[in-house]
């Protein structure tokens, strides 16, 4: 059951979710910068082990906006690996919502509370679902940001879709479990720490892969899947070991429609 919060003058009544893109401060729109300036409080995740560059990027964006908002940090909880997947995620989201509210305890909230959301709040991000756990629900403002898909296709200078071709966005686990999505000519895979493209028949498949998109550490690879799969996996392993984390995404397309 989702936690139940009673909102008062010291709690969240207006919650602004601001998409900040995938790593470049230039990804933040003018609307996003204005929202940061207009916010009363900005909640920022504390530095996690191995992810100080992500926290520093958020603080650089906040500083660049020129906001006078109060900055309050909070710690992300750790997901319980012993729970079934959906139960684990739901419990994690419940705890994040609790920590948002705990971070504001004893602090007057005279205006909107903002959160900087990696990428875009509407695509493969759960901040909106977490916000729904607040009861009564605060008034939401969503400021869109550059998605990882946009950053990937721009970095490789390719279109997302083929002419009259279907695009499917999926996860690595679904790709492993179900194979190539039926009817799709282009498949975008997110949240894949297992390089699930290895489980596909590479014949006739092209891949465009990217990690740390928009950041100075950006890495790109593309080519026939049969030729570059091993290189992508090796570069991914090396980069993750070097940085302590990695966010990557890839697009697959059949050769005849590439």
TrEMBL record:
**Source taxon at top rank:** Bacteria
Q: InterPro entries annotated for this entry?
A: 4pyrrol_Mease (IPR000878), 4pyrrol_Methylase_sf (IPR035996), 4pyrrole_Mease_sub1 (IPR014777), 4pyrrole_Mease_sub2 (IPR014776), CobF (IPR012797)
> Is the keyword S-adenosyl-L-methionine assigned to this protein?
yes
Q: Which GO terms describe its biological process?
A: cobalamin biosynthetic process; methylation
Tetrapyrrole methylase domain ranges (all copies): 15-228
Which reaction(s) does its UniProt entry say it catalyses?
A: precorrin-5 + S-adenosyl-L-methionine + H2O = precorrin-6A + acetate + S-adenosyl-L-homocysteine + 2 H(+)
Know the name of this protein?
Precorrin-6A synthase [deacetylating]
Q: Which pathway, metabolic or otherwise, does it act in?
A: Cofactor biosynthesis; adenosylcobalamin biosynthesis
Q: SUPFAM superfamilies from the xrefs?
A: Tetrapyrrole methylase
* GO molecular-function term, one example from the UniProt record: precorrin-6A synthase (deacetylating) activity
Question: Which Pfam families does the protein's record reference?
Answer: TP_methylase
EC number(s) for this protein?
Answer: 2.1.1.152
Instruction: Give the EC class as a word.
Output: transferase
Q: Which organism is it from?
A: Puniceibacterium antarcticum
Q: Which UniProt keywords apply?
A: Cobalamin biosynthesis, Methyltransferase, S-adenosyl-L-methionine, Transferase
């Amino acid at each position: 059951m989702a936690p139940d919060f009673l909102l008062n003058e010291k709690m969240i009544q207006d919650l602004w979710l601001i998409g900040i893109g995938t790593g470049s401060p230039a990804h933040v729109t003018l609307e996003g910068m204005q929202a940061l300036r207009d916010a009363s409080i900005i909640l920022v995740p504390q530095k996690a082990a191995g992810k100080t560059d992500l926290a520093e990027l958020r603080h650089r964006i906040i500083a660049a906006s020129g906001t006078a908002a109060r900055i309050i940090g909070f710690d992300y909880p750790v997901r319980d690996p012993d729970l079934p997947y959906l139960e684990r995620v739901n419990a994690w989201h419940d705890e994040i919502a609790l920590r948002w509210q705990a971070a504001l305890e004893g602090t007057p909230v005279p205006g909107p509370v903002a959160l900087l959301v990696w990428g875009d709040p509407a695509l493969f991000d759960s901040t909106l679902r977490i916000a729904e756990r607040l009861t009564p629900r605060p008034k939401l403002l969503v400021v869109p940001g550059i998605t990882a898909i946009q950053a990937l296709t721009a970095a490789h200078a390719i279109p997302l879709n083929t002419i009259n071709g279907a695009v499917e966005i999926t996860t690595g686990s679904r790709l492993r479990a179900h194979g190539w999505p039926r009817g799709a000519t282009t498949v975008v895979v997110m949240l894949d720490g297992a390089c699930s493209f290895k489980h596909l028949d590479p014949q006739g498949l092209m891949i465009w892969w990217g990690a740390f998109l928009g950041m100075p550490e950006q890495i790109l690879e593309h080519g026939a899947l049969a030729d570059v799969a091993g290189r992508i996996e090796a570069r991914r392993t090396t980069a993750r070991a070097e940085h302590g984390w990695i966010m990557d995404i890839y697009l697959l397309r059949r050769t005849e429609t590439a």
